[in-house]
Amino acid sequence: MPEFKYLQDFVGNTPLVRLKHLPGNTSNVLLLKLEGNNPGGSVKDRPALSMIRHAEARGDIRPGDTLIEPTSGNTGIGLAMAATMMGYRLILVMPENSSVERVQTMRAYGADVRLTPAALSMPGAIDEARRLEQTGVGRILDQFANPDNPQAHYDSTGPEIWRDTAGAVTHFVSSMGTTGTIMGVSRYLKAQNPAVSVIGVQPEPGSQIPGIRKWEDAYLPKICDYARIDDLQLVSQAEAEAVARRLACEEGILAGPSSGGALAVALRLNATLENAVIVSIVCDRGDRYLSTGLFA
């Protein structure tokens, strides 16, 4: 009999694909890492699995326990999938203006989804999750402070990029939400070649882009270390959404607005560099945003 794999064995090793049309006539290579190809449909499958596995190994949790997590969407979906696979109950707390697809997907996996006022954004969801934990309902894994989040990307995403570019990557671009992806990948790539430039993407003031966030100081993720980022660039909601639409209709890649924001910055680099190998993260799939009118 062949050795059959479980679902969790297929998290990671996502495709790294070269864009054909958007970069134009250039000496650069622009590559997108398609994290929507993970089983749960986003880059957050990696830290979700990592946080549960490491907590189990430390004896902090065991199957049958209840986990709690505040989320804007993708981490919640990844955790809902991983919790189901590994035998945990899960309470997810998220702003009520999250897309219908995200909420329904979490509930389809069996998660208990609690919605908080949209006006309070993610800080409101975080505060409610902390309140629930204090009542003894369950344990927060805490993607914002848990080192197992960036460790997942140091262990897998970074090595995959280095391997698949044969060490030729010169620039890495990532949207910043919890900052787990950019922290872990930066640590790995710079350990291989300190000259690799790491660019973080945050929203312009007033822009609402799911998956990209500029945090108030009181809520800045503890895993975030700005020293690991060489440059911070801002992107508007309009630009992120426009590039996401172009990515779909010009390259055939359906992705969400956070991916559009990261690609917008990668295209800026492409316009000013020569002979560069630019890698940008496509965080999730665009079908998660159909009800928002992104592609209408």
Automatic annotation (TrEMBL):
A single BP term in Gene Ontology: cysteine biosynthetic process from serine
EC number: 2.5.1.47
Any one Pfam family match given in the protein's UniProt record, by short name: PALP
Root EC class: transferase
Catalytic activities: O-acetyl-L-serine + hydrogen sulfide = L-cysteine + acetate
Pathway named in the protein's UniProt entry: Amino-acid biosynthesis; L-cysteine biosynthesis; L-cysteine from L-serine: step 2/2
InterPro entries: Cys_synth (IPR005856), Cys_Synth/Cystath_Beta-Synth (IPR050214), CysM (IPR005858), P-phosphate_BS (IPR001216), TrpB-like_PALP (IPR001926), TrpB-like_PALP_sf (IPR036052)
Modified sites of kind N6-(pyridoxal phosphate)lysine: K44
Gene3D superfamilies recorded: 3.40.50.1100
Alphabetical list of CDD domains matching this protein: CBS_like
Domain Tryptophan synthase beta chain-like PALP span(s) in chain numbering: 8-284
Molecular-function annotations in GO: cysteine synthase activity
Keywords of this entry: Amino-acid biosynthesis, Cysteine biosynthesis, Pyridoxal phosphate, Transferase
Entry binding sites for pyridoxal 5'-phosphate: N74, G177, T178, T179, G180, T181, S258
SUPFAM superfamilies the UniProt entry points to: Tryptophan synthase beta subunit-like PLP-dependent enzymes (SSF53686)
Names of required cofactors: pyridoxal 5'-phosphate
UniProt similarity note: Belongs to the cysteine synthase/cystathionine beta-synthase family.
Protein name from the UniProt record: Cysteine synthase
